[in-house]
Amino acid sequence: MTLLDDVKNAAMKYAQLYNPIKKTEKFEEDSEVNEAKTGLYSTMTSIFWLIVVVFAIYLSFKKNNGFNILGFLAAFFFAPIYIIYVVATTGLMFIPIVGSKSASAPIS
User: Fold this and answer.
1) Which of 24-42 are b and which e, b meaning 16 or more Cβ less than 10 Å from the residue's Cβ?
2) Cα(33)–Cα(85) distance, rounded to whole angstroms?
3) pLDDT value of residue 10
4) Which of these, 97, 88, 94, lies nearest to 107 by C-alpha position?
5) What is the DSSP letter of 102?
6) Taking the model in full, what pTM does it have?
7) Among 46, 92, 95, 55, which Cα is nearest to 76's?
């Protein structure tokens, strides 16, 4: 073996010991599990907010006896705040689960 071969071998051993890619392999394996958990969490969060927005738009139609552009935009962009506003100003009796047979009547 020559001096050049010794230097190459030493460089290879050093690269194997201190290779940043090799140190992150375990992290990459863990990240696959984290991505699966994050993906599920993200999906569940998206479904929750979709339900909130759809419910706010439903309330907008009920409160305004049909389509009203300002009510629709408020319900679409500020859904949680719009739901709180409608509940605070009209109560909960218009919600089909809470309300009685008059739940299908428009909100006054």
Assistant:
1) eeeeeeeeeeeeeeeeeee
2) 41
3) 72
4) 94
5) G
6) 0.57
7) 55
